[in-house]
Design brief:
Radius of gyration: 34 Å
Distance between the termini: 30 Å
Order of helices and strands: EEHH
Number of strands: 2
Number of helices: 2
Protein name: Colicin-E1 domain protein
Helix content: over 70%
Largest sheet: 2 strands, antiparallel
Length: 194
């Protein structure tokens, strides 16, 4: 009975349950396929060797995927560190602007000698207040954007970690299957020789 291919991933066929489909050229996994017209064609050891070769290939593909995921995780961590540095710098800038505004407001109370220039001083103070308010708003928006970039980088890092864990799980399964199939291949050769 032949299993229907549900999808392909990295050139490997999978069934609808997410299991790798292994197709043998000279028989079936249990050795019940036709052996052909004599010679060694279709022997159990050839079938076992083909299964073992396929398992080795699957393991190699999973290791390749694991290396690619490690590179993506490193890039995401670097992006996250950069976003954090930007966020921290913008947060400090916002604090500096607020402190400057507070110092300016504390130093701008008019004295009795400035009453003649009160109107001019009031207009200058208002202009300065507006300038500082705009600078504060701009810095706040930049800090919010930096925080958002940091959160997105963190989310991507977590996603990559989940993908990495899944790949490691699949790799362990594939390596175990490869060992099992290698043992079966050796066992089939021993049975043939005996």
């Amino acid at each position: 009975m032949e299993t229907a291919v549900a999808y392909y991933k990295d050139g490997v066929p999978y069934d609808d349950k997410g299991q790798v489909i292994i197709t043998l050229l000279n028989g079936t996994p249990d050795g019940s396929g036709s052996g052909g017209g004599g010679g060694k064609g279709g022997s159990k050891s050839e079938s076992s060797a083909a299964i073992h070769a396929t398992a080795k290939w699957s393991t190699a593909q999973l290791k390749k995927t694991q290396a690619e995921q490690a590179a993506r995780a490193k890039a995401a961590a670097e992006a996250q560190a950069k976003a954090k540095a930007n966020r921290d710098a913008l947060t400090q800038r916002l604090k500096d602007i607020v402190n400057e505004a507070l110092r300016h407001n504390a130093s701008r109370t008019p004295s009795a000698t400035e009453l003649a220039h009160a109107n001019n001083a009031a207009m200058q103070a208002e202009a300065e207040r507006l300038r500082l308010a705009k600078a504060e708003e701009k810095a706040r928006k930049e800090a919010e954007a930096a925080e958002k970039a940091f959160q997105e980088a963190e989310q991507r890092r977590k996603e990559i970690e989940r993908e990495k864990a899944e790949t490691e799980r699949q790799l362990k399964l594939a390596e175990a299957e490869e060992k099992r199939l290698a043992a079966l291949s050796e066992e089939a050769k021993a049975v043939e020789i005996a």
